[in-house]
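We include the entry.

. . .
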Amino acid sequence: MTYRLSRLAPGSYDVLLNGVIIASLVRSGPGENATWTAELLADLPPGERPAPFTEQEHTFASLRDAQQWLGVPEASERTGP
């Protein structure tokens, strides 16, 4: 599966799977205390969620952690749609 991030605004990304927006990735909180949450847009049953999503949403300590979890290299980020 190929995930990409499309930056919407500082701290906000669309998560694309094979070119289709399937989730959001957003920052909550200021500075070093910020967390990042990836949330599927559709409420799918566990067996239908795309890997690595085992839950509807997952929280990370950093953007880099979220990128690694999704398998998104930093260079694959895009700005805008």
In short: The mean pLDDT is 90. The beta strands are 3-9, 12-17, 20-28, 35-40, 57-60, 78-79.
